[in-house]
Amino acid sequence: MLDLINVRKTFNKGTINQRVALDGINLHLEDGDFVTVIGGNGAGKSTMLNAVAGVWPVDDGRIILDGEDITALPDYKRAKYIGRVFQDPMMGTAPNMQLEENLALAMRRGQRRGLGWGVTRAEREEYREKLRGLGLVDITTAGWEPSEEDRQLLLDIESLAKAAEFLKNFRAGERCDAAAAPFASGEEAYAHYAAAHREAATLNAEIGRLEKAAEELRPWGAFDVEATRKLAARGIVLRYFFTQRNTFDKQLAEWSERYTVSEVSRTDAMVWFVVVAKPGEEVTLDAQEMKTPTMDIREAERRIAEAEGKLRTLDAEFSRAAASEALLAQHACSLKERLQGVRVKATAQEAADGTLVVMEGWAEKETSGRVDALLEEYPNVVFLKSDPTPEDETPVKLKNRWFAHVFELVGDMYARPKYGTMDLTPFFAPFYMLFFGICLNDAGYGLILTLMGWWMLARNRKPGMMRQAAWFATLCGVSTVAFGLLCGSFFGINMNTWFPSVKFLDFQGQFFSIALVIGVVQILFGMLLNIWMTVRCFGFGRALGLLGWFIILVSCCLAMGLPMAGLAIPGFTAGSAAFYAALGVGGVLMLLLNNPKRNPLINLGAGLWDLYNNLTGLLSDVLSYIRLFAIGLSGGVLALVFNTLASGFVPEGANIVVRLLIMIPILLIGHGINLFMSTISSFVHPLRLTFVEFFKNAGFEMAPRNFDPIRKMNDTNE
Q1: Mean pLDDT for the stretch of residues 76-84
Q2: Which of 60, 196, 628, 654 is most deeply buried (CB count within 10 A of its CB)?
Q3: Residue 635 is inside which H or E element, if any?
Q4: Rg (the chain; Cα; Å)
Q5: Nearest to 208, CA basis, from 196, 200, 197, 218
Q6: Which helix (H) or strand (E) holds 692?
């Protein structure tokens, strides 16, 4: 039974904003009563419920529940007597707490309270370990700030990765002892490796310093450092100089009149000499003075040999570490798992006076049942499952077939698409492959790249980043071979000289306009994808403006672009009624219906502004595709230059042996440089066209982060 007796509540009393919400309200409810309270905004409905729940203290009156006066009780003490369900499903009995916390509190309702923890540390660790073993849940760790201990853990993980790379190269060298015994554990192996690596770094730095000193000391030859110190003690100071040979020879007579000069050594260009002076005497010469040597060349070489000997003794430690490869990999995995646990633990929210830990995570829809089964095994775990909303920062995992999966490494250089939007990888992959082939544009270069890709595939048979990169290189190489054959280019040689009857594409004369056409096609394709995605996510009405702009562009391309290529659609030319009708339909959609929920006049202003931005932006976007022509042309020209240069150095009448001896080094070096630079350009510029022109027109939205579940680590995990 609930009674409200003459309850009053006034907000901002005594101010200009004073508002009376409850004015002497009376209410009586029996057990089982179902009552609806109706009123306009500001009538006091929410205030009355908040007064009953204890959120707002009342100014006057009494609230009686089952015969007990609860007027003065705070809301947390009323919670055991009364509950409320909010209109907003994300709010509960404790609106400032998360749903998981409310559910956990509800589960413990009625239980006897003690001084023990609601969830023990052991239970938490077991729970995280089970989730890690499942390998399906991405725990939200946003806002994690690593402690000093955590930073050291990150450094250790990074150092282990560098150690693996160092030991891989060391194992392949001659200094590695293949019969070396491994360490007992990965932790011990890493400790010994780290100590040896630090010492090796110190010794290498010392050797570098000594070798530099030896270069400076070598012209002075062997001398007794102690003897020079004794002379200085007796007032005879040796000053050390060097200068250009012609300067020394010209000035020697003049210098000898003022000082005692003694030449020590000389080369074709330089002379080293000493001047005998008194302590503190000023010596003015047109020469560079160096500090008095603290050792001679013999001592420097002795110290270098000693340091190199110490360095060689470290090979035994490195050999044992290399033999402990598997143990080091296991140690690295354990540190990565520890880091996962640290991040999860650090970002888990403690509530209910430390008796409750709240975590948020993400699981794939098809595997969420396995996650549910795991969580249900724990009586002290309460979980709530729901689908992502547009407001959530949902992590993203891509699921593409083989071809598109290869090109995911391209998209990942920018960002993954936002959850709920379209993955553009399958759509930009063919374009990127084509663009790469156009830019490199030589069948010989493409053949080398393809062979490199096959070699990488043979060396990396397990799925992973390296095999993905190998397939990427292979596909791009195949595209380059195909386009090089189309244009008749093989290592810069015009294949028309070999096959005069074959009509190859004149890249220099024809491809400028083709590049612009390719740009228009990809941009229109991106806009079409944007329309499709907008319709799918927001409904057809939100896509009308985009559709209008698309209709205008396609109409202009068909009516004006096709005739420029010698083609035309009957009845659809620049002056035809059908063309103007299409422009009219597109204009209405773009200018007046770009947002159906907005005033038409506002739509008109926004549409005109969008028209200006789209026209200027489209022009620059299309012109950007000229880079396909420019990059392809520059690579071909350089290849031709190196071929001409190689043949130009051959003397007239030289036999085949002489020709090969002269031409091969020039061709190898020249084409090697051109292949390297052109491959980089062919990789970078299609990236730019994809990320800027295509992504922009396709309406790409980036995801906040990738889906990365906590999992058991192995040596294949990145």
Answers
A1: 73
A2: 628
A3: helix 626-648
A4: 40
A5: 200
A6: none
The answer on 561 and 412 residing in a single domain is: yes
Residue listed under structure tokens 């007794």: 224
- Examine the fold and report which residue of 243, 264, 295 is the final residue of a domain before the chain moves on: 295
**Angle at CA 195, nearest 5°, toward 194 and 197?**
65
103 vs 119: CA distance, rounded Å: 14
CA angle 482, 487, 492 (to 5 degrees): 100
Do 555 and 432 belong together in one domain? Answer: yes
Residues 249, 286 contacting (CB under 8 angstroms) = no
- How distant, in Å, are the alpha carbons of 643, 657, 659, 672 from that of 650? 12, 11, 6, 20
Regarding whether 260 and 408 lie in a shared domain, the answer is: no
Same domain, 428 and 570: yes
Euclidean distance between CA atoms 228 and 243, whole angstroms: 22
405: number of CA atoms within 13 Å, CB side? 13
Residue type, 331: H
Question: In the prediction, which pLDDT does 114 show?
Answer: 54
Q: How far apart are CA 192 and CA 186, in angstroms?
A: 10
- 628 is a domain residue: yes
In 487-609, DSSP assigns E strands to 489-490, 493-494
Domain that holds residue 47: 2-84
Q: End-to-end CA distance of the chain, in Å?
A: 62
Map residue 556 onto helix, strand or coil.
helix
Distance CA 85, CA 336 (A): 43
Q: On the CB side of 360, how many CA atoms lie within 13 Å of its CA?
A: 16
Q: Where are the beta strands (DSSP E) in 197-308?
A: 237-244, 260-266, 270-277, 288-290
Q: pLDDT at residue 517 above 70?
A: yes
pLDDT tens-digit readout, 83-129:
776 655 444 455 554 444 444 455 455 555 555 544 455 555 555 56
Domain co-membership, 272 together with 412: no
- 3-state SS, one letter per residue, for 435-448: HHHHHHCCHHHHHH
Q: Which two tokens stand for residue 136?
A: 């399906």
Rounded Cα distance, 21 and 10, in Å = 6
Domain boundary among 252, 279, 295: 295
pTM, full prediction: 0.59
- CA angle, 625 then 630 then 633, to 5°: 135
pLDDT by residue (tens digit) across 688-697?
999 988 998 8
Q: How many CB atoms lie within 10 A of CB 392?
A: 15
Bigger pLDDT: 707 or 422? 422
CATH, residue 23: 3.40.50.300
Tokens of 590: 């773009």
* Residue 131 maps to a domain: no
Indicate whether 104 belongs to any domain. no
Q: How far apart are CA 624 and CA 627, in angstroms?
A: 6
Residue 109, C-beta contacts closer than 8 angstroms, at least 6 positions apart: 80
| Tally of domains within the chain | 3
Asked whether 119 and 105 are in contact (CB, 8 A), the reply is no
Length of the chain: 718
Distance CA 449, CA 443 (A): 10
The whole-number pLDDT of residue 603 equals 66
CA angle 665, 666, 672 (to 5 degrees): 90
Q: Exposed, middle or buried, 575 (CB in 10 Å: 0-12/13-18/19+)?
A: exposed
pLDDT at 226 over 50: yes
| 488 Rama class: left (phi>0) / alpha (psi -120 to 50) / beta | left
Q: Dihedrals φ, ψ of 488, to 5°?
A: 75, 40
Structure tokens, 50: 């908040």
Provide the 8-state DSSP code for 595: S
